Amino acid sequence: VGITDKLDSLASLGIDAIWFSPFFKSPQKDAGYDVSDYKDIDPLFGNLVDFDNLVSACRKFGIKVIVDLVPNHSSVQHELFQAALKAPEGSPERGMYIFRDGKGKNGDLPPNNWPSVFGGNAWTRITNPDGTPGQWYLHLFDSSQPDFDWTNRWVRDRFIEVLTFWLDKGIDGFRVDVAHGLAKKAGLPDFIRDDAYWQAKPEDRAENPYFGNDGVHEIYREWRALLNSYAGDRVLCAEAFVEPLTKMAQWVRPDEMMQAFIFPYLVTRWVPEKLRTVIDDSLEAFHAVGAPSTWVLSNHDQVRHATRLALDPSTMTADRITGVGPRTEPKPDRAEGLRRARGASTLMLALPGSAYLYQGEELGLPEAVDIPDADRQDPTFRRTNGEAYGRDGCRVPIPWEADKPAYGFGPSADTWLPQPAEYREYSRDLQEGTDGSTLELYRSLLRLRRDFGLGTGTFEWLAGFPVEVLAMSNNGIRVYFNMSDAPITLPEGEVLVASADVSNGVLPASAAAWLR
Ligand code: GLC
Fold first, then answer.
1. Which of 208, 335, 339, 431 sees the fewest Cβ atoms within 10 Å?
2. Atom 9 in ligand 1: which residue has the minimum CA distance?
């Protein structure tokens, strides 16, 4: 079933915009983050006419369209990379990517020690057209994803063309993939992470030579100027994994991007003091550059928060790469995970700034934990020899209709990742109009968030509560999030929305409520 057919459901949820994960032509070695043609749609999803229809359908519902731009790397199948493979060393074709001679006697060692984010090392050696071993190319992700050389003006110009192509189609902006990675430190030095490195505070550590380098900013200033040349509001939203938050805020200075996902907020586990601190630090860092904070609890790279928040906070193992799977112990408790996720979302949607939801979280969907090894798709699983589960568990198609094949996701039961049987009970049609369902909770939260202007509201903490209870106000709405394991009595007031039953004036453990 195509997205265009589901827009009424999305509009009725109360969203303003859709960020589409990559739909460009791609061999799909990394769920479309390996693009072989930036100006075409992969036949898996449709074609350019379908895209135009989708954009006009979104317009009818007042939904804005955000396209996922993947500028750090292309697919090995991209014509520029194919040309680079055929061209001689030192040629302009090679210069579009990062090719280097190997170290060691016959150049058979990688040019430096950089690791791939997905496991293994970040270099692959090519074979020359005459069959002899050749240079190595850099891929910070999978070997199917060679990094572009962004010091090369030609690369920049090609991407200006790509942005222009989509902007001319009337889209509203881009989510920028790996926005921390485009600039590499000159000379590509080894990244030394010895004891001293790990013992230092993030802000005092030696600079990472491939992530978070200052060279990225001039690229985004150029893109911002391009966006500014179009009438109306446009957005650039950074996926920038950099620490600390004051550094991340550099991505959203007035002449750069407008939003950057606050990942330190996403990765904060069920630890009230830490959650409070990360909210304060985010608001402060982003306010200092005049940008809104951009909250997010789940995405296509992270263990769904209905599962993650039930994991033991002392085990940091279930991060975006490790994932959770059949071997994860102790098994996350689904019921407690759902209570916590509903509470956490109720808090998030009361915060000032912008908020991104990940498809399925409005159903309270947990991670799919028991995916058989043979069905796993994430390159991480293969590159770590199965040691890390990777991200498949959050990417399983979501249930729309309980009694249809694939729970209504598509025409056949044969989905690209298998759906667990328990997904049936989260189906959207069972939740629609059902009092207390997670879907109806999200609808209420989004409606009230809009009605009370919370996105642009004025935030403050409310005093007089124990540390396990986060109490805050925004534009006169008071919000209580009970992260303790015992119920608390709510203060006086009209309950506008709550993540659990509060009819007796009591806020259960793990729940949150908005009061007026
Ligand atoms: C980003 C994407 C992730 C992808 C990676 C490489 O982190 O969110 O899904 O695998 O970049 O493009």
1. 335
2. 301
